[in-house]
Amino acid sequence: MKILIVDDFATMRRIIKNLLKDLGFHNTQEADDGTTAVPLLNSGNFDFLVTDWNMPGMTGFDLLKHVRADPKLKDLPVLMVTAEAKREQIVAAAQAGVNGYIVKPFTAAVLKDKIEKIFERIEG
Amino acid sequence: MTDEQHESGEFEQKLREATAELTESIAKGDLTEAVNLLQQINDERHRNLYQEVGRLTRALHDAINNFHIDSGLNPQASQQMSEMADASDRLNYVIGMTQEAANTTMDKVEECTPINDNIGREASQLRKEWAKLMSREMKADEFRGLYKRIDLFLEHVETQSNVLSEKFGEITLAQGYQDLTGQVLKRVSNLVHEVESSLVNLVCMAGQVDRITGIRHPQMAQQKQVAKEEGDGTLPEGPIVSPDKRSDVVANQDEVDDLLSSLGF
């Protein structure tokens, strides 16, 4: 399982990386916004994408839409981990095809729960 | 009555007097005097405006100039602060400090994790052998091995517990950023308040000037309001500072989950 973590704050990337490691996901890579994430996704055979929303350059929402529009990436599960908490945004992310939505600040238990649900749904 | 109100009252008084004189001079056919009076009214209006703008500019300038970190910080920190000229530098200082603290904390936690894992692993191995001993399934030479390992384990726990305590102490110390960044943020917040009240004064004054000069621009504000309301609600906004005061945001993960499940998730 290879996971790409996209967040403009290095600290948050590190937190997510450590939490994923605790959950048994050791193979992670990082990008600091959508623009740097796209080439990695194209070349990296990722199985899972965890992204923030609000980032300079390309936002996580645009990255999500980009992934869903790309024939090679469209089935990639995407988990949004973001401080963006407007109902309209959550609805928009759902409509754009997000697989899970976590609002910051979040706990390890929430991250575990959402990741498990995403894979249950994909495998089930 | 404040100075500003007093001055604007004075201006209105002058305006009234000059208008009476103006009507009089026109009635008398003294156009030179009438034009002179108009000029005087205009000059007075300008003087009033420049004075107010000048005062507010000075207030803004002072507010920004007074924005210095002066006391309460350790010498090293005040040295760093004195090199910073403006609020944006101060906010960057906060970002740097919080990032450093987060990294230190995570470094220490990462150093503690394997120590703790080791203790747990050793304890669980020893407990299996201990169980054997309790159920009298242990041979004599096995017992001699266990005897030594328990001694080593206790010694190990003792030293590692000291290492852990030291790292916990460092984690606690790393939270010291809260004090320093808190002071800096308070000052930035005060500056914002000062600037805001100065701007409110400027707007009030501009309103008085508009009234005096007869300028009307009611459309702009409304248009701006409409534009704001029709804005793209999916544009990123960052953390919601007071979710309890807003109906368009979720307050926690449960509300996100409820919303998503209502959409069939």
Automatic annotation (TrEMBL), chain A:
Pfam families: Response_reg. The modification 4-aspartylphosphate is found at residue 52. InterPro entries: Bact_response_regulator, CheY-like_superfamily, Sig_transdc_resp-reg_receiver. Residues 2-119 form the Response regulatory domain. SUPFAM superfamilies: CheY-like. GO terms for biological process: phosphorelay signal transduction system. The keyword Transferase applies. One of its GO terms (molecular function) is kinase activity. The keyword Isomerase does not apply. Keywords: Kinase, Phosphoprotein, Transferase. This is Histidine kinase.
UniProtKB/TrEMBL annotation, chain B:
Keywords: Chemotaxis, Cytoplasm, Flagellar rotation, Hydrolase, Protein phosphatase. SUPFAM superfamilies: Chemotaxis phosphatase CheZ. It holds the Pfam family CheZ. Its main location: cytoplasm. GO terms for molecular function: phosphoprotein phosphatase activity. One of its GO terms (biological process) is chemotaxis. InterPro entries: Chemotax_Pase_CheZ (IPR007439), CheZ_family_phosphatases (IPR050992). It is an enzyme of class 3 (hydrolase). Residues 227-248 are annotated as: Disordered. One of its GO terms (cellular component) is cytoplasm. The record marks 183 as: Enhances dephosphorylation of CheY-P. Its EC number is 3.1.3.-. Gene3D superfamilies: Helix hairpin bin. It is found in: Cytoplasm. Plays an important role in bacterial chemotaxis signal transduction pathway by accelerating the dephosphorylation of phosphorylated CheY (CheY-P). Homodimer. Belongs to the CheZ family. This is Protein phosphatase CheZ. It comes from Terasakiispira papahanaumokuakeensis.
